[in-house]
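User: Hey, my collaborator sent me this sequence without any context and asked if I could get a structure. I don't really work with proteins. Can you help?
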Amino acid sequence: MLLERTRWRYRRMTDAQMARLAPYFPKSHGKPRVDDRRVLSGIIFINRNDLRWRDAPADYGPHKTLYNRWKRWSDKGIFAQIMAGLAAEHGEEKMVMIDATYLKAHRTATSLGVKKGGVAA
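Assistant: No problem. I've predicted the 3D structure and written it out in structure-token form, which is a compact way to encode the shape of the chain:
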């Protein structure tokens, strides 16, 4: 499903994409989870466009839901399992991956040190 807006372009994951990722999602216990497709599409949109969680378009659901799911799945290693599983399916023997969140955090911390009178790295 493709949703168009004046400034933004929202995209939902396809059935085929979700079918490939479904084995990596944790099982729901108790209360059913909010739609995985919508939430995962929102997380990807936020990361791809380098937005704050609160700037998430309403089409992806509440920003708090997006953040909570991202945090919980990150802590459980779900995203790492997805990446490893997709890389294994591809058949590449060597792959170099860069954790962009680490680079961004490091870059921010480094620039804060310089701004606040710290030693430049």
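In plain terms: The beta strands are 2-4, 9-11. You can pass these tokens on to your collaborator as they are.
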